[in-house]
Write a structure and sequence with these properties.
alpha+beta, two-stranded antiparallel ribbon, 4 strands, 2 helices
Amino acid sequence: MKPQLKIDGDVVAEGKAVGLGNTQEFRMTMKPVGLSQEDVINTVTVGGFYCVGLDYGIVSPKELQKIAQNIEILKNTISIDNIYTDEAMGEILNAVSKAYFAQLNK
């Protein structure tokens, strides 16, 4: 399997093929304006599906409503055959990360 980083379903980075179940280091460097750089390092498992959620300080009610609509549609179409897709698992993980940050920002 090849590790891929996707943004909104589009592959923006791809690594070399590795065996299923192996672990790798996923490293991101964050450089906020006016602040010092911070490295974020996580161990990930090949074959896993992960989400990087960013907190911009506010998640709008409109955005949360759109995510809720997407999940409502998804629950009627999801199956074991399509759960591990951007359309299914990607939407679920996006909903979890946005709900988390929305709760923090109350």
